[in-house]
Amino acid sequence: MKALFLGAGASYECGMPLVWEFTNGLRANVLKRLDSRLFDFRKDPSFRARFEEILANPDLHYEQMIGVLENLQLERGASSDIARTTALQLIDCVQILLLEDQLLTTNLLAEKTKDYSGIKDLLKKNPCLHVFSLNHDINFEEICKFHNVDCKDGFFDQTIERYSNIAKFKSLTKEQLNNGDLNFFGPEGVGVNLIKLHGSLDIFAVEDKNLYLKCVPPLDTPIGGHVQEIRKIENHSLELSQRLGIRTVGELDVTDKDGEIQFLRRSLLSGAHKFKGTFDQIAPVAFFEEFKKRMAAITELDVIGYGFGDLHINEFIRQWLGTPNVSMNIYDPYRKSIPPFLDGAMGDICVFNFGLTEYFQKLEPSTPCFFSYARKKSFELIRENLRKRRLSLWQTKN
């Protein structure tokens, strides 16, 4: 049984940034706002310089920056509280900038999805396909929607009327999560089971994590409708915050149908302590447990665009490769060898130097309609210009 495992590189060709690209923009945007009210250093003004040093360190990407702040909090010293609030605000900045990237790359995504028709051929051979994703973006959902592939993400199509004035949502209750009662295809189903392990731009927790909401794009909307639904929530919260003169960290302030203030907690999971139980996390642990459970039946794992930077994922993959008769294929345009921590793995491991576009194109090699040489080169040029633009943000700052 085959499954896909997606990292940031799987969304790269659609315009979303890799970790260091994203870090360039985050550094530039946050550093120029340190004198604004975005971060609150009033309780410890000296921490501002310490935070600026963390941000400016060229050897740290954004998750490592958050990890440094988490470690300062864990030390329980004088800077523990301000390190905590600063880390939460930085994660908010990550969410906002990722959403901005999703909006800015909508047109590119709309064109690139045409190159992924091979997903239908993949489903012919693997009717119930598990796709595990570390990505916060909504690109794979859009790919499935464009190609009319049924996709289930664990959430139930049950509208919670209280929040219907804010956006259209699917839902999952805490009880359903605890019981493993998730809305996925069974073994005889036909479609994609998409399991997002690190949260998503469109997933929120409400009511003290007793209820989870996931945005649903309006029916028959083109690519971009999904991210616009998320944008509606952000705009709703911004309007309320400006009207009341308040702003919370890690959550969106909204009003429900009865006019009562509610708090939608963002699910994005980042930093150095994922799934360790050290910090409160919004991304449901149940999805990680579901991933581990379903991997027990997987014999072939196609890893696309993952840089092997998450220790909790690496340890599980290493253990899985120790089971009999399993294999892993790594798709990465630049990787020349298997990750060192897998040197002693018993399972077969192969490396292929291409990404998600060519992965799907090779599944349907007889269909050249959207994959000409000129088209490929034009997309590569657009993507390179995006990379240079993100790099210039940091170079301009310096």
Q: How would you describe this protein?
A:
The protein is built from 13 helices and 12 strands. With 398 residues, the protein is of the alpha/beta class. The protein has 2 domains: 2-12 and 105-286, no CATH class; 19-103 and 386-397, no CATH class. The strands form 2 sheets. The chain has a 7-stranded parallel beta sheet.
Helix amount, in percent?
40-55%
Which spans have pLDDT < 50 for at least 5 consecutive residues?
Answer: none
The count of helical stretches stands at 13
Question: What series of H and E elements makes up the topology?
Answer: EHHHHHHEHEEHEEEHEEHEHEEHH
- Report the portion of residues in β strands: 5-15%
Counting DSSP E segments of at least 2 residues, the number of strands comes to 12
Mean of residue pLDDT values: 89
- Computed over alpha carbons, the radius of gyration is 21 Å
Structural class: alpha/beta
N-to-C CA distance: 50 Å
Characterize the largest beta sheet: strand count, sense, and whether it forms a barrel.
Answer: 7 strands, parallel
**Apparent shape:** globular
How many distinct domains?
A: 2
Strand order of the largest sheet: 3-5-2-1-10-11-12
